[in-house]
Write a structure and sequence with these properties.
heterotrimer; A: alpha/beta; 2 domains; five-stranded parallel beta sheet; 40% helix; C: alpha+beta; SH3 type barrels; five-stranded antiparallel beta sheet
């Protein structure tokens, strides 16, 4: 793929790694917020190639991991209804609720469908007027514009049998919450490149200043990640704490104003509970009053949800970088990828799943 | 191979016995009932469609002359959706899949049975296309279709057509091909590019459709195996990486043999079309299904020769070495990444789903 | 959250009142909604996430970034032991902010 493959060149990666090694004179802890970045880091083995002492802490940037248990349970309750066609991104299918997951419900006869885009769910709604089609609208600011436009379309085209179960989460409040945590070890952030493609850079300057942390907007391919890390190390070594854009080809400073306008119209800020972390004020989006009729939470009365989080699960502490997965007593015992207790073990970029894969292995990189 | 996704009507005139089928454009419950309708279906759809591959006594069982020696016996059910995709259809998979299971034991495949579960309402055209594809695939693979069955289920109980094939073949004396034969130092080979079948099917699946030039690689592989054996290669392990792709297969071998496997990412044959489709949906090509590819483990000093032999065969043109068996990390498969790092290639849990993260 | 890939716009058309495009991702083609990038022209590159173009891909910037990396690579080859500082013209470019300001070199 053009403008993608070139950013995986191994020789250029080596050059960037050499520079990182040369620039690093002391230990640093950098958090990458975005689950997509975690995935790419693990997939390419990047964290193994960094200087010893340069630690990447995998942050809570994975909507799979942080969607609140109550929302999962609500989704499952809706998906079980015979009149509902429940559409979702593939990521959510195996996330455990208090009991079951979407995959189990599908196998028990529930009409659960994986789609690539929320527009596909809207198409299904249009073609099946006798079904109630619900789309599971999770994700960070990157995904919110797609969900927003779908609701706008639903109204414009007059498709009443479509609704959205919204659970959007926002990056800047998460960064603030992590830095406010007393046991926080994070000294710098790799900001999520595609979140910034939408939202721009403006929200990050106050954070960099208030918490005195470098924030470097970073992409996802190996060279992008390495360059983001390199620039972060340079700032840390120089004692600076600024917002830097290491992904300019995809991130203009202002982001995408057209998308921001629609987001402003369709969503409103709300407090959001992050699974395993707790409530972070103003950290989520829900459908605004104007679009209340498309809100699945209102359309389907799913009261009486009693969540049942495993008391053994410490994924919240893992998500904040407070403990390593290996420090959790259930890790590898009661909790494995096949029988996950929390979302960080389900998702391929969940820190616990990643550690579980590595733990069995002691292979030195060449 | 023709693109079976074209659904235009079949030309019944070309078949031997005409009338009854033209009057019933779709399959009804009676076609599975064992009476006149069933007989019509066999005589006027299945047998003509199977063509030269058919060897039907039409008794309750097929009685066969089988060469002396060890028999390989395998069965599989095929439920792929959509049934028609670029490069083939469920019929191709049903024949090639079972032929390949036999081939992975080193067997020469001989005879297949074919059982159909058809949802009421399936068109004759669809069923006929599937049967035609099976006949053609059987001829290509050199096997006969010797016995079968058809059941019809309520519309809604099934979903189009499900096919089950069972097959028998003969295994030459002295051949022991089994995961426990893998030894540290052995070379891991693939007979061709990976990920084509899974991408082809996904490109037509509802909710994910995308335009793609990638066609399924469905093909019979016993010729490749025979060539390796005839060439004096000590074939230790053979598997075809179907569901779960190379990731599943290598993990299964590593666990069964108690060895580690190391793959080298730069050496993996991933066609651009597969790479791009996987990039679009967030899939790992190593977990994507193949239907015309084999993974072989041979002694390291025979690896080059084995690749040369494979490349000279039909369906083996893209053969290459992709890794080795190691004594370290038994039961675990590791991929050396393009950057020189490592990642553990885990056993896939269930079907790989497109992701947004 | 963040799996978005760059693709080239092949055709642009209206569908039920919304601007859509056929986008080519190297070989895979997909229908993409262009509502958030209404100025897009055929032949340009966009970044696509779950069926929506969320940002344009700045080709000039992409090539510039690659060129910077290549210079870093060449310098590493030429000078053997790489130094950590972004030295010389190439280094200052590499560390430049989008607004064009340069960073001072790291003291050795």
């Amino acid at each position: 793929m053009k403008y993608l493959d070139e950013f995986g060149d191994p020789d250029l990666a080596r050059a960037l790694l050499d520079r990182i090694h040369a620039a690093t004179t002391q230990p640093w802890a950098i958090m990458e917020v975005c689950g997509g970045q975690t995935h790419s880091i693990i997939r390419h083995g990047i964290d193994q190639l960094l200087p010893a002492g340069l630690e990447l802490i995998h942050g809570p940037g994975c909507p799979v991991c942080v969607t609140p248990l109550e929302t999962i349970d609500r989704a499952l309750a809706i998906a079980r209804r015979p009149e509902v066609t429940f559409c979702s991104f593939g990521d959510m299918l195996r996330v455990p609720g208090s009991r079951d997951d979407l995959f189990t419900i599908k196998s028990q006869g529930g009409d659960v469908r994986v789609v690539y885009s929320p527009l596909d769910a809207l198409t299904i709604a249009g073609e099946n007027p006798d079904r109630q089609v619900v789309f599971f609208g999770i994700g960070f600011e990157t995904t919110a514009p797609a969900n927003a436009m779908t609701v706008v379309q639903a109204r414009r085209l007059g498709i009443p049998n479509f609704s959205l179960l919204v659970s959007h989460v926002l990056v800047p409040p998460a960064i603030a919450a992590i830095m406010e945590s007393p046991a926080c070890r994070v000294q710098a952030f790799l900001a999520a490149g595609h979140v910034c493609s939408v939202m721009g850079l403006s929200q990050y300057h106050p954070l960099a200043q208030r918490y005195r942390v470098p924030i470097v907007v970073t992409g996802f391919e190996p060279l992008d990640l390495l360059e983001g890390i390199r620039r972060t190390v340079v700032q840390l070594e120089e004692g600076r704490h600024e917002v830097e854009n290491a992904y300019p080809r995809a991130v203009p400073a202002a982001g995408n104003p057209a998308a921001q306008a629609v987001l402003e119209d369709v969503f409103e800020v709300t407090d959001r509970t992050w699974r395993g972390i707790g409530s972070i004020p103003g950290s989520g989006w829900r459908l605004s009053q104007r679009y209340a009729e498309y809100d699945a939470e209102r359309r389907f009365d799913v009261t009486g949800i009693r969540t049942d989080e495993s008391p053994l699960c410490r994924s919240g502490e893992v998500l904040q970088g407070l403990i390593k997965p290996t420090e959790c007593a259930a890790f590898g015992r009661e909790c494995t990828p096949r029988m996950p207790l929390g979302a960080t073990m389900v998702s391929t970029e969940g820190a616990c799943a990643a550690y579980h894969a590595y733990r069995r292995l002691d292979v030195a990189p060449t | 191979m023709s693109d079976m996704s074209d659904m235009s009507d079949l030309d019944f005139e070309g078949w031997t016995c005409p009338a009854p089928l033209r009057d019933t454009p779709t399959v009804v419950m009676g076609h599975g009932g064992g009476g006149q309708l069933s007989a019509d279906l066999i005589a006027n759809l299945f047998l003509p469609a199977f063509g030269a591959a058919a060897q039907a006594d039409l008794g309750d069982s097929a009685v066969l002359e089988v060469p002396a020696g060890r028999l390989a016996f395998s069965t599989d059910s095929y439920v792929v959706k959509p049934m028609f995709f670029p490069g083939g259809c469920i019929g191709d998979l049903a024949v090639n899949g079972t032929v390949n299971d036999l081939a992975m034991a080193g067997a020469r495949p001989l005879f297949l049975s074919t059982a159909f579960v058809v949802a009421e309402g399936t068109t004759m055209a669809e069923l006929g296309r599937i049967a035609e594809a099976m006949g053609a695939a059987a001829v290509r693979a050199g096997v006969r279709l010797v016995t079968g069955d058809t059941k019809v289920v309520d519309h809604g109980s099934g979903d189009g057509v499900y096919v089950t094939t069972a097959g028998i073949g003969v295994v030459p004396d002295g051949l022991r091909i089994h995961p426990d034969q893998a030894r540290p130092g052995d070379a891991v080979l693939l007979s061709g590019p990976i990920g084509r079948h899974g991408v082809a099917v996904l490109s037509r699946r509802e909710g994910l459709e995308f335009g793609s030039e990638v066609a399924s690689d469905t093909a019979p592989l016993h010729g490749l195996v025979a060539a390796l054996v005839a060439g004096g290669i000590d074939v230790r392990v053979l598997r075809d990486p179907t569901r779960g792709g190379v990731a599943a297969t290598t993990n299964e071998i590593a666990r069964a043999a108690g060895v580690g496997i190391e793959l080298v990412e730069r050496d993996l044959p991933i066609p651009a079309g597969v790479r791009d489709a996987c990039g679009l949906l967030g899939l790992d090509p190593l977990q994507v299904a193949n239907e015309g590819n084999l993974l072989a483990i041979v002694p390291a000093d025979q690896a080059q020769e084995a690749v040369t032999i494979l490349r000279a065969q039909e369906y083996g043109e893209g053969a290459c070495r992709v890794g080795r068996v190691v004594a370290e990390h038994p039961g675990v498969v590791v991929c050396r990444t393009g950057l020189g790092g490592t990642r553990v290639l885990g056993l896939p849990i269930g079907e790989q789903l497109p992701r947004i993260c | 959250m963040c799996l978005a890939v760059p693709g080239r716009v092949l055709t642009i058309y209206a569908e039920r009142g919304t601007t859509m495009a056929d986008v080519d991702f190297g070989g895979a083609r997909k229908k993409v909604c262009l509502a958030y990038l209404p100025e897009t022209q055929v032949g340009e590159y966009v970044i696509v996430h779950v069926g929506f173009a969320i940002q344009r891909l700045d080709e000039a910037s992409a090539l510039e970034t690659l060129a910077t990396f290549e210079r870093m690579g060449l310098l590493a080859e030429e000078f053997g032991e790489p130094s950590g500082e972004p030295f010389g013209e190439a280094g200052r470019e590499a560390a430049a902010e989008p607004d064009g300001k340069s960073r001072p070199a790291v003291p050795q």
